Amino acid sequence: MSYQVKFHPNDSNSFLAPSSDNRIYQWDIRTGNVSQIYNHHLQAVNAVVYFDNGRKFLSSSDDKKLLVWEYDIPVPIKYIQDPEMFSIPYLGLHPSGDFIMGQSMDNSITTYKCNDVTVRPNNKKTFRGHNNSGYACQVSCSPNGKYLISGDGFGKLYIWDWKSNFLTRKLQAHDNGPCMGAIWHPLQPSWVVTCGWDGVVKLWD
What we know:
This protein has no helices and 20 strands. By secondary structure, it is mainly beta.
């Protein structure tokens, strides 16, 4: 079973699908076939995110590892692993392209500095205050990169200032379960859309 689909940013015919069998499948929609398999995680692969203009991507897994890959090459170029790391079921890219954000199961959002060479943890920029443990809540940024948003397991929506890490606002977005999705509108800078287990999609202004 696949947990996510991510189209390549520069090739609309190719997408990655991280899956429960510990693999990441690269599909070609023109042929309907798998064109590459990435198989180095030890447990289910939860999420992937492209960076470096699609030349590389990062994957996260229940094995509590992050692997850095060059696109279309099935051998990781870097392992990110620490005894204190938690599983990260969601990954997102900052609009600047310089940072990757990870929804960590220790009730925090961790960040990683990424460039054309490597990915490394950015321990000075960690966002806390929400309760997401057990839920793969989406993480996203405002189009200008100044604010970070995430839902949590109690249906709340959290907004942080990216530069200061300061929690600027929280509100009860959904009832009877978690707020799973939260994303900024790409053209209307004041609009945010959320969804939750209550079966409701909301537009916030």
